[in-house]
Amino acid sequence: MLFIRWRSDVPLRTVKANAAVLVLAIFTLPSPTWSQQRDTAKSQKSGASAKAAELPQHTGSVTGQVVDQSGAQVVGAAVALTQASAEAGKVDATTDEDGRFVFYSVPAGDFELTVSFPGLTSQKFSGTVASGQHLVTPVIMMVIPTQVTEVHVGVPPEELANEQIKQQEKQRVFGVVPNFYVSYTPNAAPLKAKHKFGLAWKSASDPITIAGVGFFAGIDQAADRWGAYGQGAQGYAKRFGATYGNVFAATFIGGAVMPSILRQDPRYFYKGTGSKKSRFLYALASSVMCKGDNGHWQPNYSNVIGSFAGAGIQYSYTPANDRQGSNGLVGSALIRLGETSLAGVLQEFVFSKLTKTKGTQRASMNNP
Question: How many domains does the chain fold into?
Answer without folding.
Answer: 2
